[in-house]
Amino acid sequence: MDLSVCPCSISPGYVVLMGMGVVFVGLFVLVLVIGVMGRILRGGRGNKNKEAASAETVTSVPAADTQDIMNTAERQQVVAAVSAAIAAYMGAKDMSGLRIRSIKRI
User: How far apart are CA 70 and CA 20, in angstroms?
Assistant: First the structure.
C-alpha cells in the first residue's frame, strides 16, 4: 500500500532546502522593509546626526553652571519630587526609611 500523496517524485531533501530558502528570503525581505520604514519615520536622519546633536548639547552646558542654576529652594523641591516619585513607584507608604544620597542631572 503506497501512502504517498503526490504521485511525482520530489525528494525530501529538495523540499527541506526549498522551505528553508523561502524562510530566509522572507526574513531578509522583512529586515529590508523594517529598515526602510525606520528611515522613512526618522525623516532620513541617521544615528550620526542624533549623536552629534547630543554631544553638542552636553558640551554646551558646563558642569559648574548646572550646580549654580538651582538654588536651595529649587533643590529641595527637586529632592521632594524625586523622593515622591520613587516612593510611588515602590508602593511605599512610609518614606522614613528612604534616603536619597545624590541626584545628578543627565
Answer: 61
How many CA atoms, within 13 angstroms, populate the side-chain half-sphere of residue 33? 6
Kindly report the pTM of this predicted structure: 0.36
Tell me the per-residue pLDDT of 72-94, one tens digit each, with 9 for 90 and over: 778 888 888 888 888 888 877 77
| Helix segments in 5-95, DSSP class H | 12-42, 47-60, 63-69, 72-90
Q: Which amino acid is at 22?
A: V
Tell me the pLDDT band of 24, cut-offs 50, 70 and 90: very high
- Distance from C-alpha of 73 to C-alpha of 70, rounded to nearest angstrom: 8
Give the three cell numbers for residue 8.
511525482
Query: How many other CB atoms are found less than 10 A from the CB of residue 70?
Result: 14
